[in-house]
Amino acid sequence: MVPTWRLRTAFARRLSAVYGTEVPAYTTLLDVTARINEETVRRDGHPGHLGGLDRVTAERHGAIRVGTPDELRQAGAVFAALGMHPVGFYDLRDGPGAVPVVSTAFRPLDAEELERNPFRVFTSLLTPDDRRFFDDGLARRLGTFLGRRTLFPPALLALAARAEDGGGLPDADADRFLTLATDAFALSAEPVDRAWYEELSRVSAVAADIGGVTTTHLNHLTPRVLDIDALYRRMTDHGITMIDRIQGPPRWDGPDVLLRQTSFRALSEPRAFRETDGRVTDGTLRVRFGEVEARGIALTRTGRTRYDALTAETDRRTAASDTTGSDAAADHAATARAVWEAGFPRTERLLATEGLAFFTYAPALTRPRDGRRPPDGLAALLDQGWLTARPIVYEDFLPRSAAGIFRSNLTRDTTRDTERTAAPYDADRLAAALDRPVHDPFARYADRSLTTLRQARRALGLTPTPEESV
């Protein structure tokens, strides 16, 4: 048998090989990322408290887009065979980078599985019933087009069901499953209907990429880097055009939190087009890009509220500036750094004691033997050496950053009628489409953190506090 986690590891490797063939700049990105990671470890030491180098090196997240709830459900079945479950609900339909999709991320849930291979796939669902983007006529024709296609063949879905039920597959079936799954996410050579694609592009390039073709494909495949600022400069030195800035929290002297992302700009890729007279012609599309990420500590709901407030304050101050171009990016970075230095804790200890970030806890290896009883409060337990705290890595995504990277790589802005009412979407509606629960990321982090804190307190002879019992 090939167990679930080995299927996931093999699938991530196969996708990486395919995407490197389809988008050669991705191979450059991997090479630069590996060099930066090695240099960072030599300079700063082992990054173990946020994931060891082996995990960081193997880490990837992909992104795909589907058009219908049925397609989303089938994608969920394929990912379930790989031990990947839907976590989080992301609505990308509002704000300056609005696109007509809602999303979730498929990933492992348990710490042990994440350590084995933390492969994630950010999966977006088109929203044709949102009349801010699609009128009645276009929505009907889009539904007809999507209803005619098959993204995932029956043989793949049958093998996926067996793998989910059995916790893996026999060797021969595993290879067949991996081949079919990889093929399902490879770029198709089938000609694109130019008129139909262009009509959807006038609404959104993302809508065209989902509903204007007969297959799905990887939009990006993202490695993890330990110094994203160094990578940004190095890729630019290689002559690869990057988006205007790094998305997410700023670089500063305090703890790394949440997720920082950037990408090279989408490249013009040759594609075949079918014209209205039936001729097949050559052309290009520019929808796929190379993303890279740096991961930090997961924040609690209170911590995310603080992060959102600091982000809004950075936006307010940046909007008052009259800088443009590269000066605007530098101004934004400097402003964000100043805002964070004034408003965010500068140590991991403060993040823990102020309830702003998630940590796992353990009794210290050595404790005083003079008969002293441990104190009750978390801060005192940490300060006096009774407990150690290890940060929990943020395994999920930031809607604002995802939308910002989407927007940075589009050739035109999305068309949206803000006078119309948005179609209602939430995690429950997404779960109904998937026929699977959509897990709350905050709940996953909190459960892991509180479980270790309870265990550590019991080991020290302390009873759980009321807060820990919730």
UniProtKB/TrEMBL annotation:
A Pfam cross-reference name: HGLS
Keywords, sorted A to Z: Dioxygenase, Iron, Oxidoreductase
Class of this enzyme: oxidoreductase
Cofactor requirements of the protein: Fe(2+)
This protein's record includes keyword Lipid metabolism: no
EC number per UniProt: 1.13.11.93
Entry-linked InterPro entries: HGLS, YdcJ_bac-like
Family: Belongs to the 2-oxoadipate dioxygenase/decarboxylase family.
Listed name of the protein: 2-oxoadipate dioxygenase/decarboxylase
Organism field: Streptomyces catenulae
Lineage, broadest ranks: Bacteria, Bacillati, Actinomycetota, Actinomycetes, Kitasatosporales
